[in-house]
Every structure is written in C-alpha cells, then in structure tokens.
Design a protein that fits this description.
The chain is α+β, with helices and mostly antiparallel strands and 298 residues long. The chain has 7 helices and 19 strands. The protein is globular, with a radius of gyration of 20 Å. The mean pLDDT is 96. It binds flavin-adenine dinucleotide (FAD).
Length: 298
C-alpha cells in the first residue's frame, strides 16, 4: 500500500529521491538500524529546505542524517521521514574561503583544500562524516576541530527561517555547538590559510596511516563511543578496566582501540546499548569516572 505522506511529497517535490521502508543500516556506519518509514536524499541544501518546509506544512518533522557515522539507529526503525544530506555536497573555493553544503564529505573537503593549497583542514581527513554532522558536534581530531576554521554557518531555525551564525554565535565547545534541537544546517564557510599542496597532501596521508594503524577501520562502528572525560582518556579507562574484547551479542569493545565499540557481526542496536551501559558501569566502579556517550542514540 502506498504511503500517503510519500504520495504528497512526490506530488510537491517530483525531483526528490524518496524511498519507502528503507533500512537505516544502509545509511549508518554501524550498519545497524531498521526501516525508516520514508528516506529522502535531497540533492542540495535548497531541496533539503524545501522538504523540511513541506513536511512542516503536513504536520511532520524530519530526522536529519549526514553520513550516519555518529549515530545508533533503532532496530525497530523510525516512523518518520529521514532526510539524508550526503548528496547535498556542492562546494567552492573563493580565496581562502571554502564554502560547502551540509552533505559535503569532510574527507573530500579536506582533500580539496589540500589540493588547492589551503591549510587548516588536514585534521578532518579520514573523519567519515559530512560537514553538517561535523558542525553539530564540533568534530575534531589530532589537535584540530571545526571550531578553528568555521567562519559562518547557514541554517534553518526551529521556525524554518533561514539564518546565519558567525564566529562565537556558533557556540562551539568540546563535541558540542549551538546547533541543537530543531536547527537544520544548510551550508558553511570555512576560513583557511595559504599552504603548500604537496606538504598538505602528505600530512593527510600520514594522518590516514595513523588512523589505519590505531583504529578498527575494518569493522563497522560509529567512531569513539564515549567523550573524553575531564583529565582522562575514555579508551585508557576502558582498557584499564579490562574491557577490551567484551561482547554483548554482535557488539564488541574493539581489541585494537578500546574507545571504539564495533559491530563484530550481526550486532543490533540493543546489543550496542547494553554494551555501552555495561562499559559505563564497569569503568565507573573501576575508576569512579562517569563516561558520557559520544554516539547519538536515535
Ligand atoms: C571510523 C570512524 C572514525 C571517526 N573519527 C572521528 C574523529 O576523529 N573525530 C570526530 O569528531 N568524530 C569521528 N567520528 C565520528 C563521526 O564521523 C563524526 O562525528 C562526524 O562529524 C559525524 O558526521 P555525520 O555526517 O556522519 O553525522 P551523522 O552521524 O549523520 O549525524 C550526527 C548528528 O548530527 C545531526 N546532523 C547531521 N547533519 C545535520 C544537518 N545538516 N543539520 C542538522 N543536524 C544534522 C544528526 O541528526 C545527528 O544528531 C568517527 C566515526 C567513525 C565511524
């Protein structure tokens, strides 16, 4: 039976790619998650904005996903329209400014900046997310973070009015930003600096090598499962509590990097949630430190 909401969306936005009962496991780096009632793949920030406004007029609210690399999607799926932004990926360089749409891949943007001799985005090479997802949680690695380079962000506020936040208005802190709740990020301008393309490309290559040697990239995951607690490292605390290799169903604390929970085969969201809880309890009793999940449970 055709979904009435799908029919209305198709009538209003005939060019939008829309799928019914699409498994979220196909759109999350954990490879976990049941079907979304509807899954839309807007091709630009404008099409994403049109979809959000249409859904609002129909009394519906979308869930926005970038590359699904920081989320745990439920086994039972989601009874809403999920908008995956990864195809809204346009970008352009103007002087030292790199402007990109929310779905642009961080790694692709980092490579583009390096190729054009713009420095400041090497840290983002190898983070498997989109620009939008990275801004929401101020993604960072190897001493750099989005906060360092993001000059301004264009977004839809809770009333779906288009707005721009500049500099400190963006509220970046450790794995957080002002972009919470119902805000929908459309694009951003990154301020970079002139650099040498060969040097920058080599730096990107070295960072990817570091990732490959220290992270379990061969298995599905959502990156670091927990935020870094004040004055400590989550991975070290988990390791010291003797939890490497601990399993619940198909979910496992990585043997290679204790900060990662991996899908070792057939893991469900419930397996991952139970493992997250167990790790938190065991680290608390071993060290007295409370770990806060970095992964967003949808
Ligand atoms: C192997 C691996 C390594 C990783 N390494 C790192 C690392 O070094 N550093 C780091 O910080 N992270 C890392 N991550 C985590 C993840 O890649 C980053 O957090 C990334 O920025 C998430 O982007 P995404 O597009 O996948 O977001 P998603 O997971 O799709 O979404 C994350 C959150 O942002 C929201 N969101 C996404 N796009 C938008 C938008 N346009 N508007 C409004 N809300 C939006 C979603 O609703 C969700 O709440 C790693 C993950 C993996 C799997």
């Amino acid at each position: 039976m055709t979904d009435l909401l799908a029919a209305r969306i198709r009538a209003a936005l005939p060019k939008l790619e829309l799928r019914e009962k699409e498994p979220l496991s196909l759109h999350t780096s954990f490879r976990i998650g049941g079907p979304a009632r509807l899954l839309a793949l807007p091709g630009s920030g404008e099409e994403l904005a049109d979809l959000c406004r249409l859904l609002r007029s129909l009394g519906e609210k979308p869930l926005i996903l970038g590359n699904g690399s920081n989320v745990l999607a439920p086994d039972e799926g989601l009874n809403c329209c999920v908008a995956v932004t990864a195809r809204a990926e346009g970008s352009r360089i103007d002087g030292v400014m790199l402007e990109a749409e929310c779905g642009a891949s961080l790694t692709a943007l980092s490579a583009k900046a390096a190729k054009e001799g713009l420095s400041g985005l090497v840290f983002a090479y190898g983070i498997p997310g989109t620009l939008g997802g990275a801004l929401v949680m101020n993604a960072g690695a190897y001493g750099g973070e989005m906060k360092d380079v993001t000059a301004e962000t264009r977004f839809l506020d809770a009333d779906l009015n288009e707005r721009v936040f500049r500099g400190p208005e963006q509220g970046f802190g450790y794995r957080r930003s002002a972009f919470t709740g119902d805000m929908i990020l459309l694009s951003a301008k990154l301020r970079l600096e002139p650099g040498d393309p060969d040097f920058l490309r080599e730096e990107c290559r070295k960072l990817m090598e570091r990732r490959r040697s220290s992270q379990p990239l061969e298995l599905p995951s959502a990156g670091s499962a927990f935020k870094r607690p004040e004055g400590a490292y989550a991975a070290a605390l988990i390791d010291q509590a003797g939890l490497k290799g601990l399993r619940v169903g198909g979910a496992m604390v990585s043997e290679k990097h204790a900060g990662f929970i991996v899908n070792a085969g057939g893991a469900t969201a419930s397996d991952v949630r139970r493992l997250l809880d167990t790790v938190r309890e065991r680290v608390l009793s071993a060290s007295g430190i409370v770990l806060e999940p970095e992964i967003r449970v949808l």
